[in-house]
Amino acid sequence: MAKYGHYRHEEADIMPKPIDLDMISERRGTESVKWDTTPDGTIPMWVADMDFPVADCIREAIFRRAVSDIYGYPLIPEALYGSYISWWSERHGMDIDREWMEFSTGVVPAINSIIRSMTGPSDKVLIQTPVYNVFFSSIRDSGRIPIEAPLTIKDGRYEMDFDSLERGLSDPGTGLMILCNPHNPVGRVWSAEDLARVAELCERYGVICISDEIHCDLTEPDVQYVPFLSVSDAARRIGIMCVSPSKTFNIAGIRSSMAVIPDRGMRERIRKGFSNDGISKPNTFAADATIAAFDQGGEWLDQVLDYISYNREEATSFIHEMLPELTLYGSEATYLLWIGIPYPIPDGKGPAEFLAKEAGVRFSEGSSFGECGKGFVRMNIACPRSILEEGLTRLYKGVCLLRGHRYRYPRQEKNSLSLEGMS
């Protein structure tokens, strides 16, 4: 793989820390969106970042850059492109052509810019709901109209509704589709057959498809993610794949991503859009951190995936045993659980708002993911096991209140998690 750090300061190396995913890092007071916007006494299990320390190789790469004397305008080193190409080849079996790649400061900024570059005012943009809530604002804030092709539920899991999808794509006003692969929040990893059918329909009706693949590395051990652009020539003609190390390696604050665009004409329009929108240049630390992550972070990621998988099993077992009336959909990817709560909520609140106020655990409100998300919450399980256990206990407490029962924990009592500002 490509070497990282084109300016190296070996004397600045710091001692690596052992990987300890059970360790609780104090995040309050660090300007954390997840923690510092959540009231003291409430556990945040909402926004999609992990409560695990980053891999040592990333810390060391950033530290080496940080001790430089000047933080001027950086170039994009070829090693950055090489790190993506190697990772997708070795990890996902897909060959990415260097010419297809355009850097951006994030997947969401890239999607916003592509919407403006590739559609006109008042065009329609199709999304498959329930889906990542920012898609709605990205479309509306760009002066476009979101239309929904809701997923359907079959045999206890979400599937694409291709009849609904075709109706939306065949609308003459639809110019763009945003695909979520793997899907946030329902955790589906779409099959090659599903993706090829999406590509065929998009090409038939002249619709461009952006595939947001930011969660692609976060699959269950026995599940293989399929890159959208790998499934067919049609996908490569109409498709744009947005990828990033940010979710995989817990470095969203580094602001680094790549749009992969095989079609030359689309690529030129998107390149100009990125430049006009000011999202085509990296910050001082983005390249070094990304290269270190993809070139050296594989072992760290494998341990994190095993830990998340265990957390998923624990949460699933807890909900099935203690809260059988809740609906938990099987998640193949991400570190997010999509949970249906069947009880009416007092005062017209959503279940996440109720649980935050009454039980001290904050989830994402399902209604923000589309109309069909009402009555659901999204739970982030990428955290130390002690936080997970406390969060599940508080979920149980909140559901007891909704049942109209006095809270009494029927499992063997455990010591309550003692964290500054959380207990």
What does this molecule look like?
The protein is of the alpha/beta class. It has 2 domains: 78-296, Type I PLP-dependent aspartate aminotransferase-like (Major domain) (Aspartate Aminotransferase, domain 2, 3-Layer(aba) Sandwich); 299-403, Aspartate Aminotransferase, domain 1 (Alpha-Beta Complex), CATH 3.90.1150. The protein is 37% helix and 13% strand. It is built from 13 helices and 15 strands. The protein has helices spanning 33-36, 56-66, 78-92, 107-118, 134-141, 162-170, 192-204, 233-238, 264-276, 286-296, 298-322, 351-359, 385-403; strands spanning 43-44, 101-104, 124-127, 145-148, 152-154, 157-159, 174-180, 208-212, 239-243, 257-260, 327-328, 336-340, 361-362, 364-365, 376-380. The strands form 4 sheets. The chain has a 7-stranded mixed beta sheet with strand order 2-10-9-8-7-3-4, with helices on both faces. It has a 4-stranded antiparallel beta sheet with strand order 11-12-15-14, with helices on one face. A two-stranded parallel ribbon has the order 1-13. The longest helix is centred in the last third of the chain and has 25 residues, at 298-322. The radius of gyration is 22 Å and the shape is globular. The protein starts with 32 loop residues before the first helix and ends in a 20-residue tail after the last helix. Mean pLDDT is 92; it is low at 1-12 and 413-423.
